[in-house]
Amino acid sequence: MSSSSEIKKVTTRKIQELKEKGEKITALTAYDFLIARLCDRAGIDIILVGDSVGNVFQGNQTTLPVTLDEMIYHTKAVQRGVKRAMIVVDMPFMSYQTNIDEAFRNAGKIMKETDAGAVKIEGGEIYAETVAKLTANGIPVMGHIGLTPQSIHRFGSYQPRGKEEEEAKQLIRDAKALEEAGAFAIVIEKVPASLAKHITESVKIPTIGIGAGKFVDGQILVVYDMLGLTEDFNPRFVRKYLHLSQLIFDAFQKYIEDIKSSNFPSEKESY
Prior knowledge:
Helix 5 (about 100-115) crosses helix 6 (about 130-135), helix 6 runs parallel beside helix 8 and helix 8 packs parallel to helix 9. Helix content is about 40%, strand content about 15%. The termini are far apart. The longest helix has 17 residues, at about 165-180. The chain is of the alpha/beta class.
């Protein structure tokens, strides 16, 4: 008999159950042990080790430079801090686009070396066969449609997707294709709320929005955005729950002041 205090790991089945019960799914990104541990302790359902690490951790303008080995490195750090949440790992640019067999090898490498719960792939119909190959071989896949950052040079901007009728229809087809291919969930990024609602009602698997309104099954944000660490990134869909950048800046300045004035270390802080 299991103990009532036993921590139950969030799985694909649990995520599906949340949708069926009408309970919202919570998700955040994490790239390191300390943030991941706090997310997990707080009760976040899904932790995405996102290729957004390229922007917020590495300082790149896009996610494209991020490598497979870097994603594995960060996932290993995150994994050490997590007991409950489901860890999903972004497959970075050019780790799955070349062909299905290479995508399978790279996804398998992620799962084998990190003990993650799933991988995430950007794109819809065009990658349905890839998703089917992975899921048929025991690798859970989260889809990602709408604004897909790895395709930013094709889009030419970070404007919302699906505002035109034909593109909206394609996004609906993309969602259905991912569901049929075996994806367990779909991230919908930066599309009109009404379209995200229609997609959510069109598929049986959970949808997780970012800039897609509230009529989806869950929400995800980049953790540094919602903590207020990214000072120059202020899209309307980001709610900042803290303004950590200013708090950290003030702490650094106080530290400098205390050293300059010989106030640190004190006698109590010395051996």
